[in-house]
Fold these 2 entries.
Entry 1:
Amino acid sequence: MPDIQLLGLRISVYTRIARLALEEKNVPYTLEEVDIFADAGPPTDYLVLNPFGTIPSLCYGEFHLYETAAITRWVDDGFSGPALQPTSAQERARMNQAIGILDSYAYRPMVWDVYVQRHVIPASGGSADEAQIAAALPRIRLVLQELDRLGAGQPFLLAGSLSLADLHAYPMLRYFVETPEGQSMLNEFPRLSDWLQGMTVRPSVRATSYHSPGGSEDGF
Ligand SMILES: N[C@@H](CCC(=O)N[C@@H](CS)C(=O)NCC(=O)O)C(=O)O
């Protein structure tokens, strides 16, 4: 069996999502750090693997894959271990809906508009764009309202057991709650707050923990 190589960055939300899936399935892999944020842009040999220059990408022998949701589904479909996708068509659709919501409406506002503005830019001597932060918050609240509603009464994000949706959501929400705005907004959603706290003790989360500038490390 070829080795799995994941190319990305430890601090990257999407790299972490892919790593969480690999860790939950107990699939061995190595992480190769690729600095796509370098001034010169992504390395040219990386663009051969992923012409969009985003991370992560995965190599398994001659099989090369990018787009995180494709990677996590391949990991779950291709390896033994606990199933991370529901078998019922409706529950699977719900999981895919939540992943779509996170990709389309959560990642940019939570991570770039709030976390980066609140922590990363001030840490490098700049000033947060308060208007950008304020403009992102209503969209984020809508995302949290929807996630709360879609999994109402459930201990995991959507259901009674972990799915790829939990793994997709955790790294985004983790960054968001490192900001005062995120902390206070999450308090409006006790179910999601409990879920996030519950996720922090999972071995997969601990194994992929990183130190983020200006923030804590996964609450422990
Ligand atoms: N659609 C991509 C998005 C991945 C993504 O946006 N990754 C971020 C890092 S967490 C990135 O590569 N950003 C650089 C860019 O967008 O150019 C996926 O699902 O893998």
Entry 2:
Amino acid sequence: MGKQDDIFSAGNLSGLPFSFNEEVTEVFEDMIDRSVPGYKTSIRLIEYYAKMYSQDNSNFYDLGCSLGASTKALLDSIQNKNIKVISIDNSEAMIDKCKRSFVSYIEDGYLDLKLEDINTSEINNASVVVINFVLQFLDVEKRDLLIENIYKGLNCGGVLIVSEKIHYESRRESESMFLLHHKFKAKNGYTKMEISAKRDSLEGILVTEPELVHRERAKRIGFRVIDKLMSNLNFSTYLFIK
Ligand SMILES: C[S@@+](CC[C@H](N)C(=O)[O-])C[C@H]1O[C@@H](n2cnc3c(N)ncnc32)[C@H](O)[C@@H]1O
């Protein structure tokens, strides 16, 4: 585990919009674990379902890989099937740190790490694509195009595993989940001030959608199976099968 996240603690407030810069990269593992309920379970689900749906001689993609927690789950799921993992992020700090952690996998040809905008990435011959808590950071109007691009690059029977923070159609439910999530972060040691400063910094940067929007997008694009694998407070993981 890297350094403890105290980016939003008192006296340390930049007031700038949130970005995946060097400062965030340094504390990212601690930050995501203490902020996202079910994060570790999402990583275990990725390994489990990648094993189940992997196809011989195909590619796995991890889009928005950060420090490579999902990438590691994908690598661990490979069972002599001639699979290449391609992991992509547009944060230089994240990709640089990731490169240092995965040297042997890169040298042995199992992993390709790319500094790239996933909106323009090529997806080819894929049996498993992962987008774990990333879609929420993309412009809403670009999300359909990205999922369409993934769909086109998936082989028949291939899967897309998506995790997202969601909001609810009902205001009451959204508010109640918001309070529970606040309690989750407080229990994990964040102060009221840190929670509120981070919320301000993420305003307009992390834009959630309701579950129905994710399901309808996947259906419209052509996925034949749309399953929810996990839901933990206002965070969910889905499996879409082509
Ligand atoms: C919450 S983190 C993802 C966590 C990671 N998938 C995991 O499972 O640990 C979001 C990541 O998406 C990346 N990202 C956001 N927009 C992107 C884009 N347009 N292209 C590539 N990466 C992007 C950020 O740099 C950041 O590293």
